[in-house]
Hints:
- One of its GO terms (molecular function) is phosphate transmembrane transporter activity.
- Its main location: membrane.
- It comes from Litorivita pollutaquae.
- This is Phosphate transporter.
- It is found in: Membrane.
- By secondary structure, the chain is mainly α.
- It has one domain (about 35-495).
- Helices cover about 80% and strands about 0% of the residues.
- The chain has a two-stranded antiparallel sheet with strand order 1-2.
- The chain is globular.
Amino acid sequence: MTKTTGQQWKTLDKDLGRINRLEMATIYVARPLVGTGIALAFIVLAALSAAVIFGGTAGDLIVVAAAGFGAYMAINIGANDVANNMGPAVGANALTMGGAIAIAALFESAGALLAGGDVVSTISKGIIDPSGIASPDLFIWAMMAALISSALWVNLATWVGAPVSTTHSVVGGVMGAGIAAAGISAVDWPTMGMIAASWVISPVLGGAIAAACLAFIKANIIYQDDKIAAARRWVPVLIGLMAGTFSAYLALKGLKRIIAIDMQTALLIGVGVGVLSYAISAPLIRKQSEGMENRNKSLKTLFGLPLVFSAALLSFAHGANDVANAVGPLAAIVHVSEFGDFAAKVTIPTWVMIIGAFGISFGLFLFGPKLIRMVGSQITKLNPMRAYCVALSAAVTVIVASWLGLPVSSTHIAVGGVFGVGFFREWHAERRLRRKAGSANAPATIRLAPEERRRRKLVRRSHFMTIIAAWVITVPAAAVMSGVIFLLLNTVVGAG
């Protein structure tokens, strides 16, 4: 009797074990669908909100559909673009993934809602001339096609694992729809030429500044005999430089809704904040460094907190600027639907800004970790010093580009900074290796074959080529997709 009961319990345990494994497998398989389901719910909620605000007439259904696609675009911006701000800090272990997502979501939303431009060029900085489009209806379909195509392209890039410029995606979408609606002559080609030039200028300038910053840190802190004394001297200077640069950056780019600030005033603000930050940080760094060992691990601790602040400030500025990529075309459609005409610049309604801000936060939370890991750890290995150089180069490059009047992409700058740090480390390591190999008493292990040296690269070439290819084809791919979508929409509506 006891033996039979024991066998029954064993059979029951096996059955329960199978059920448990089945449940775990179901949860594992369904996990990727949770994010997609939440994203779809947000898109539907955005569309329903537009329906409540505008009513349910046939003409307003266009606004409802546009609100849904605007929410979809905002989600994709959060999934792709925000990785550039948070990737270096996460890769350097200054922030956990959860902490990075929380900070980015908070500061992206704050930047979008508090300092997002209330007037935006809905046709992406004059890419096409609205007067060249025959009717308001055609303009609506052109903006709708641009919104859909740019969102699809950024979604595809995120799925592939390539950080691309959402600004350039929107530019390509607007250009393709404009050509399909009004011909090649509708495009402002000199402006397009400037944008094409920024494909090269943005990453090269960002990479050069990041590499120069890392070279300075190595020479003046890392390779000094007394690293702690060198850090006490230079880390407050670097913190002041970073704080001043970000203050000027935010004054130029992030506060235009509150007050108009020119370049000279922004630089003066930056100098003032930089000097104040140096005065505050010098005694704090001296106190924090007391008792630290004279090694690189101690230096990483000193750079951790500045890196967190830089990531937060980058997110605020990104939300203030790039939310327009999601809601600019949507604002144009809303304006045409309300007033029956189109203009180069329109005011963005508050509810449209909210869709953009919350969409970016949802996209970051649901799909952002993939690109954060890519930028932070899969291109090259980052530590707090290297990540600091990337963050500083992003702010400096935007200020220099604004001064020169060049349109640049925050994505290209940040990723270019990561590449710049990685390639500088390769060059520096190769130079040190040649010096050691050239000495008479160099060990045999130093004298590596050329094939082995090529294998020991510090930047993953596969990611490098994938990202460069994605950058190059972003505008033409979005343009072709947008043109095709515009023709399909126009055909369907015309047939209807």
